[in-house]
Amino acid sequence: MVHPPGFADHSALLKHELAYCLGQMKLVSALPVLQSVLENLDEDPMVRHEAAEAIGAISSPDFKAVLTKYLTDPNRSVRETCEIALAKIEWDNSEEGRQHLVSKESSDQTPAYTSIDPAPPCSKLLSGQPRPDDLSESSIASLRATLLDISVPLFQRYRAYVCTPQHRTPAAVDALAAGFSDDSALFKHEIAFVFGQLLSAHSVPSLLNVLQDASESDMVRHEAAEALGGIATPEVLPHLKEWMTREDSPRVVRESCQVAIDMWEYENSGQFQYANGLESVRVEATPA
């Protein structure tokens, strides 16, 4: 199979982003390419993980067997991603999932976040914005408990973290940040991604701790760097510059900091939108 040129690149970050975009575009025609990326054991695990997640985002039941095959993959992040992607496909094709899709397509509300998440929000938030009682301390505490409970299936923990940022409070941010104590790199990198969507300055200290932790997974540090670039508060820039140039900084961290600095500069320039490449690709991919 001939891959798109981007997947022949040496940059794991670029290939990871390409796989992410293919999933967000929900291109069924991209599934064979994503399958081949997942099946390539010589590929960077971060790229293989993103290919599996993209297969879940596209959500074709025909590719469940592919994901099932890699539930025993040597790499934990790949295994866990396949587990979550399978659960997402099952949910998307359940009665609740189909009803949610119909409701979302008929709604005139603008969603707070437009990305396709690896898991849907918890059931009580499927209908839209949280109710006042969902913002209570007890509600946040309940979500936090689910988020941190390693005995709960990973898909359910993901549903809790998708719910938590809907509250947009310091308590919700703290609940998410507690997830950085988990031993799953996949789980921690998704929390950093959510912080990048939430854009709360309250998350900056936690994200900086992740970026500066040389013992942390490159995948997690990469996501923390890009989240910091999007939040774009003054204190993050020196740290991004430091890790972009340090000799001991892994390549994916250096490149992510370079991207994050670019994001930081755009956010502080007063321009309307940063690098809306995905929308451009969608337009180009739309048949005439």
From TrEMBL:
UniProt KW Calcium keyword: no
Basic and acidic residues bias spans: 98-107
Cellular location(s): Cytoplasm; Nucleus
InterPro entries hit by this protein: ARM-like, ARM-type_fold, Deoxyhypusine_hydroxylase, PBS_lyase_HEAT
Alphabetized HAMAP family for the sequence: Deoxyhypusine_hydroxylase
SUPFAM superfamilies from the UniProt entry: ARM repeat
Cofactor(s) for this UniProt protein: Fe(2+)
Catalysis performed (reactions): [eIF5A protein]-deoxyhypusine + AH2 + O2 = [eIF5A protein]-hypusine + A + H2O
A GO cellular-component term linked to this record: nucleus
Protein encoded by which gene: LIA1
EC annotation from Swiss-Prot or TrEMBL: 1.14.99.29
Protein name in UniProt: Deoxyhypusine hydroxylase
Annotated binding of Fe cation 2, by residue: H189, E190, H222, E223
Cofactor details (free text): Binds 2 Fe(2+) ions per subunit.
Main subcellular location: cytoplasm
Function: Catalyzes the hydroxylation of the N(6)-(4-aminobutyl)-L-lysine intermediate to form hypusine, an essential post-translational modification only found in mature eIF-5A factor.
Pathway the protein takes part in: Protein modification; eIF5A hypusination
Binding positions (Fe cation 1): H16, E17, H49, E50
Enzyme class: oxidoreductase
MF-aspect GO terms: deoxyhypusine monooxygenase activity; metal ion binding
Gene3D superfamilies, per the entry: Leucine-rich Repeat Variant
Magnesium listed as a keyword: no
PANTHER family reported in the protein's UniProt record: DEOXYHYPUSINE HYDROXYLASE, PBS LYASE HEAT-LIKE PROTEIN
Recorded superkingdom: Eukaryota
Alphabetical keyword list: Cytoplasm, Hypusine biosynthesis, Iron, Metal-binding, Monooxygenase, Nucleus, Oxidoreductase, Repeat
Family, per entry: Belongs to the deoxyhypusine hydroxylase family.
Residue span of region Disordered: 98-133
